[in-house]
Each structure stands twice: as structure tokens, then as C-alpha cells.
Amino acid sequence: MTRQALSRKIINTCLEMTRLGLNQGTAGNVSVRYKEGMLITPTGMPYELMTEESIVYVDNNGVYEKGKLPSSEWLFHLAVYQARLDCNAVIHNHAKHCAAVSILEKDIPAIHYMIAVSGTDHIPCVPYATFGTSQLAQYVKEGIKESKAILLSHHGLIAAETNLDKALWLAHEVEILAEWYMKLLATNQPIPLLSKANMVAVLEKFKSYGLRIEEK
């Protein structure tokens, strides 16, 4: 896809993320791998005001276009691309239930077989660090190696996939899982989990399961 088409896709993804209730205001950010770096949403700009020209190119050394300011979280977007060569799109948001679980500093365990959308048997929660810092980027880099979806402690969610459609699908699925988990925690009852063997079987089946959309 051309830069203009990818930039429009980023904007449309941001708008859809808000429509789905996965984000509030300008809190989230979205990027795609592009050339020797990435295209990413600008800092502090409402999604509905973005144009293709608003989207910022940041190279793999962290150098960005003159006169533009990328999202304050650009460091951890680059960290994801460095850690996951299989991923070409990253979505970060403050989805309500994902953020709530992250405040509890909990992983989401194998409460349901759809946990396997992450590529593993749980959704990890990485330690807290101040937003926009190299320390947070390092935590993200380690966590994303384990799972395509991770919670950031006291913060929100990162979802990474081969393209934006799949990344948004993943983010939505994880928010649903987080909502279920919060409701289960509220019962104050022991939560039955799927076994390791159960999840191994599901993960094998998930090699040919998921959203089937390929970008042209």
C-alpha cells in the first residue's frame, strides 16, 4: 500500500477503535510498519481531525519528520517491531476493562479458549513505567515476545498483528476477555481455568483460525 493509503487506514482504524468503545479521547495510538521505520499517529490530535498529512513517519533510529510530533508512545511501537518481525501493525488503547485488569497488575489467565488469540495461554501484564519512556519500551519489548497482546500495568493494552484489521480484531477480543475476567473476579469465587493441555490443543487449532483479511 502507498503511504497515503496506509495513513488513511490508520485514521480509519482509530475512528473504528473509538466506535467500538475501545478508547477515549486522544489516549490511544496506532502505527504500521513502513519502509525503514513506521507510520504513527501524531501526539495530542483528536482522531476526527487527522488527515493523511497528520500521520508521522519515524525511522528505526527514532528520527521523525521535521515539523511533526509522533505519539508520545512511539518508543514502544518501535520496540514491538524490533521484537516481532511477524507483526506489521500496533494498536495501543486504554480500553476500560483492559485498563481495569492492568490496574490490578494481573495477567488474564486461561478463563476461555479465546485467550489463544494472543498466541499463548494467557495475556501477560508487564510492569509499570512512566508513559513514553525507554523503560516502558523495554518492558513492552520483552512482553510482546511472549504474546501478541499485552497489558501495561496501570495503563492499558497493546495488540500487534500482521495488519491493522487483525490488530483491531485482536484488541477487541482481548477487551471482551478482560470484561469477562473482571466480572468473574467480582464474584469472589475461585475461577476454574483451562488446563495447559487444553490450551496446547487450542493453540494448535488457532494456527489456522482467526480473522482472514490480508492487505493488498
From TrEMBL:
Cite the GO molecular-function annotations of the record: L-fuculose-phosphate aldolase activity
Report the EC number(s), separated by commas if there are several.
4.1.2.17
The name under which this protein is listed is L-fuculose phosphate aldolase
Site note Plays a key role in the stabilization of the transition state and positioning the aldehyde component applies to: Y113, F131, Y209
**Would the keyword Metal-binding turn up in this protein's UniProt record?**
yes
Q: Cross-referenced SUPFAM superfamilies, in alphabetical order?
A: AraD/HMP-PK domain-like
> What species was this sequence derived from?
Seminibacterium arietis
What Gene3D superfamilies would the database entry show? Class II aldolase/adducin N-terminal domain
Pathway the protein takes part in: Carbohydrate degradation; L-fucose degradation; L-lactaldehyde and glycerone phosphate from L-fucose: step 3/3
Sorted alphabetically, the keyword list is: Arabinose catabolism, Carbohydrate metabolism, Fucose metabolism, Lyase, Metal-binding, Zinc
Its organism's taxonomic lineage begins at: Bacteria, Pseudomonadati, Pseudomonadota, Gammaproteobacteria, Pasteurellales
Question: Where's the Class II aldolase/adducin N-terminal domain?
Answer: 8-182
Q: How is the cofactor bound?
A: Binds 1 zinc ion per subunit.
Required co-factor(s) are: Zn(2+)
